[in-house]
TrEMBL record, chain A:
This is Aromatic ring-hydroxylating dioxygenase subunit alpha. Residues 27-134 form the Rieske domain. It comes from Arthrobacter globiformis. Keywords: 2Fe-2S, Dioxygenase, Iron, Iron-sulfur, Metal-binding, Oxidoreductase. It comes from the Bacteria. InterPro entries: ARHD_Rieske_2Fe_2S, Cholesterol_7-desaturase, LigXa_C, Rieske_2Fe-2S, Rieske_2Fe-2S_sf. One of its GO terms (molecular function) is dioxygenase activity.
Automatic annotation (TrEMBL), chain B:
The keyword Transferase applies. Residues 1-22 are annotated as: Disordered. It comes from Arthrobacter globiformis. Keywords: Methyltransferase, Transferase. GO terms for molecular function: methyltransferase activity. This is 3-methyl-2-oxobutanoate hydroxymethyltransferase. Residues 1-10 have a biased composition (Basic and acidic residues). It comes from the Bacteria. One of its GO terms (biological process) is methylation.
């Protein structure tokens, strides 16, 4: 269980909330690059951390992210004309550049310097790989650009999708940390999904259905090791990193691409799951990308607004027959919707005073505690971790180690991302 | 054509509606109707310190208010435990009518006692957790002695992890 006040503190990320202040120390994914595909393309509404923003790409390819509403009379700039180096409000023609600076106020005399004093609040937004990251915090505290390995590999080695999840971000994050659900909820997918099947690791998974867990504190967050019996005197380890505040990665299987997620708050009742697959040393194959686009692996089949086709309005296409046959443990198709259907069913913000946690939830308990401490530390002026390259250059790992080794020491450098270094997977 | 003639394989799916549909049930408004009643506490969580440093940590946790948790120290061979109030309790009794044992260790002493707890827990289906409170150390004897006997381990654990774990599990 968790006290109501702490639950709300961790869940609420709007401006001037304690958790919102923490989130505003990190670059966060706010759009897929495909949403602003070319210069002067249509602007896109962005809601993140409970702020209504408009994103656009100007005639020179510069990205802008700013207050959605025109400074004049509050019209949404979604209706704006994206032309000649700026976004123009269609009501009275006020025009803004990518920094939010008004560059034309045609309703005023041409000699007036009125527009110099009109500026919409704006935030820096950069493209890394196929994702646009933005920083909504104090410019003086802006961390270095994101260095996640998935977004530093060459083009063609990463694929990112996003999907709407209609619940608070913390419920979604906790699913990424909760390693003990995998055997149950996703048990049916290991051998059927093209993005998981056929690895040696899967054999260990199936051979030992009751993993042991070790939760290791790290500077940037946690490493959650799930340990299963392998050959005599050896353990098969799957190591999931969580990096503050909202990044988790799934341990790899064989030579399949590696996947992970950012759980980005939209407002306190909704979040985006940004889900990526990348391979550190090779191009993704056409077949892999096709499977990802089709919603396999950690991805989902979505409508054009990135809401999953299976959603709460159609009961996630619940299939009781497949539940009975054991193909899908919950009767819902696909990892992503298996998770989000259950997390949404808890309600937008689950009442954590009613939880009956058990010892194997220690990873979740510890993550909440680390988030809480980071919030408190920031209030005392201590900068958080997780926004520095050394925290972000982390890999998930699957490995077989001798039984008498700490998994962190056994893994050693395998957990550290380096260009063109093969990943450690079983 | 009557309703019964629909070809269910290819025909349009009916759209779920009403109180039993996910769309309706997963709203904040509906969440408020989740019924409210006292939840059962964890059943008699036992917290066991394996060395002096661990004992210091569990003693300070024991000062807080708990539902049914009890706090002990153990030394090899582990047949009898000392409860924080000073009384001696046989291991068999400590491991009766409980569903979780949390072991706290810093040094790796008393490995025989750990195994005694672990064996009994396995036999009786009791959940085991371990906190390795050796500061900064990823590898330690404490880790290796606890590892075979704790379903989940925190490495390294901070002092307040014990309190958080007990609180979160309603001990
Ligand atoms: S079994 Fe875990 S939420 Fe129900
Ligand atoms: Fe999951």
């Amino acid at each position: 269980m968790l006290r109501t006040d702490i639950n709300e503190l961790l869940a609420q990320t709007g401006p001037r909330t304690p958790m919102g202040d923490l989130f505003r120390r990190y670059w966060q994914p706010v759009l897929l690059a495909e949403e602003l595909p070319e210069n002067d393309c249509p602007p896109v509404r962005v809601k993140v951390l409970s702020e209504r923003l408009i994103a656009f790409r100007d005639s020179e390819g510069r990205y802008g992210l700013m207050d959605e509403f025109c400074a004049h009379r509050g019209v949404s700039l979604w209706f704006g004309r994206n032309e000649e180096g700026g976004l123009r409000c269609p009501y009275h023609g006020w025009k803004y550049d990518v920094t939010g600076q008004a560059v034309a106020v045609p309703s005023e005399p041409t000699t007036s310097n009125f527009c110099a004093n009109v500026k919409l609040k704006s935030y820096p937004m950069v493209k890394r790989g196929d994702v646009l990251f933005a920083y909504l915090g104090d410019p003086a505290a802006q961390p270095p650009l994101p260095e996640w390995e998935a977004y530093t590999v060459p083009d063609g080695q990463v694929f990112t999708s996003k999907r709407l999840q209609e619940c608070n971000w913390l419920q979604a994050l906790e699913g990424g940390i909760d390693s003990s659900h995998v055997t149950f909820l996703h048990g049916g997918n290991l051998e059927s999904d093209p993005l998981f099947k056929g690895s040696k690791g899967n054999e260990y998974n199936k051979g030992d259905l009751k993993p042991f867990f070790e939760v290791v504190d790290s500077e940037g967050g946690l490493l959650i090791g799930a340990r299963r019996n392998a050959e005599e005197g050896k353990y098969y380890w799957r190591v999931t990193p969580w990096v503050l505040p909202n990044f988790t990665m799934v341990p790899p299987r064989g030579d399949h691409p590696v996947h992970g997620h950012f759980w980005v708050p939209i407002d306190d009742d909704n979040c985006w799951a940004y889900s990526f697959d990348y391979h550190p040393t090779r191009q993704l194959t056409e077949a892999e990308v096709a499977a990802m686009r089709a919603g396999k692996g950690v991805h989902s089949a979505n409508d054009p607004s990135y809401r999953p086709l299976a959603n709460k309005d159609n009961d996630y296409l619940m299939d009781r027959e497949s539940q009975k046959r054991g193909e899908n443990y919950s009767g819902i198709e696909g990892i992503a919707l298996q998770d989000s259907s259950l997390q949404e069913s808890m309600g937008p913000l689950v009442d954590r005073t009613k939880e009956r946690l058990v010892a194997t939830d220690a990873g979740i308990i510890k993550a909440r505690q680390k988030l809480y401490k980071a919030v408190k530390a920031l209030q005392d002026g201590v900068e958080p971790t997780g926004n520095r390259a050394k925290d972000q250059k982390v890999r998930s790992v699957a490995i077989v180690l001798p039984a008498d080794q700490s998994f962190v020491e056994g893994i050693g450098e395998a957990m550290v991302a380096e260009p063109a270094k093969p990943h450690t997977s079983v | 054509m009557s309703d019964h003639d629909h070809d269910h394989a290819t025909g349009p799916r009916s759209v779920p509606s009403g109180p039993s549909s996910c769309a309706e049930a997963a709203t904040a408004k509906e969440a408020a109707y989740r019924i409210d009643y006292p939840l059962s506490a964890a059943r008699n969580t036992r917290v066991v310190a394996l060395d002096d440093e661990a004992e210091r940590i569990i003693r300070s946790a024991a000062l807080l208010e708990w539902g049914q948790a009890r706090f002990f120290s153990i030394t090899d061979p582990g047949e009898v435990l000392a409860e924080v109030d000073g009384s001696n309790v046989p291991l068999d009794e400590v491991m009766t009518d409980t569903n979780t044992v949390v072991m706290v260790a810093s040094s790796g002493e008393n490995a025989t006692a750990v195994a005694a707890i672990g064996d009994l827990a396995r036999e009786r289906g009791i959940m085991t957790a371990g906190l390795v409170v050796t500061p900064g150390a990823l590898t330690s004897d404490a880790l290796f002695h606890l590892r075979p006997h704790a379903r989940i381990l925190l490495v390294p654990a901070e002092e307040d992890d014990l309190i958080e774990l007990l609180r979160a599990t309603r001990a």
